[in-house]
UniProtKB/TrEMBL annotation:
It comes from the Eukaryota. Residues 195-218, 273-303 are annotated as: Disordered. The lineage of its organism: Eukaryota, Metazoa, Ecdysozoa, Arthropoda, Hexapoda. Keywords: Repeat. The keyword Repeat applies. PANTHER family: RADIAL SPOKE HEAD 1 HOMOLOG. This is Radial spoke head 1-like. GO terms for cellular component: motile cilium; nucleus. It comes from Papilio machaon. GO terms for biological process: axoneme assembly; spermatid development. InterPro entries: MORN.
Amino acid sequence: MPEMKGERGEDEDTIGIYVGGRNIEGERHGEGWAVLPNGDFYQGCYCRGLRNGKGLYVFKNGARYEGEWRRAMKYGVGQMTYPDGSRYEGDWRYDLKQGFGAYYYPNGDIYEGAWFKGKRHGLGTYFYAEYQVKFMGTWVDGVIEGPGQIMYPRVRFHGSWFKGMPKGPGCFVFDTNCMQHGFYELIKDPKYEEYGEHEEEKEEKEEKEGKFEGEEEIEVDETAGKISVWRARNVTAYLAEFLPPEPVPLPVHDSVPSLTHESVSTELMQFEPPTLASEHEADDNDSWLLHRQQFIEEAEQKE
């Protein structure tokens, strides 16, 4: 089976070219650099034959990771830049984004918040550059779910989301100090009406009738072929007690144990932490590192 990028160390002398330190067992140990047969390049620290500590890994396709490693996996804090120009800056665990991190997209969009096993999971914010709109809420397994807010230039919406779509009661708060109350309802997307009225209901009925007793129930996606439509009900003066629940961090239970850290004494090669601020960032106080520290402190308080 071919070696996956970033998953293993070059623990055999026959794999690529290596220049650097070794221990008494002949394993790569300490500082060094290696060129893999597939064209990838690594420069940094090793421990007992595996990438461990700080290092820079450059992929043949142009992607690069600069940050911390443990047992040949991205583990700790690091920055990953992808071929399309997008980049992730934040926490890693077992080669996956996990903890707090910011993802910068080529179109200018930014997600900043919690990650779990490579997906957005927990409290976070998403900035839509094209519309200058920011969403704050919770994600579950990569999909928006639960309480949230959308912040427009002069209006803010408070409500709930279901499988990535607004659904249920909510309110719009205007800068004129008033509120519009109502609810989002999922209705059929007119684009799908061309398939025939009630066609979807017929298909669902046929599926249920064709099931045998004891057969596992098939979960039906309530959002398939649907759009969210706002139904306004009334307007009132602004009162905080009328606001829906605020989004809160999600508890995370990881059954995978943490990797122990094995330090290697290094003197020749000094790796500075990656530049973890946006090139166009105007305010240093808005950096993802400060938000990450706040995220960690809030998580510790809840434990």
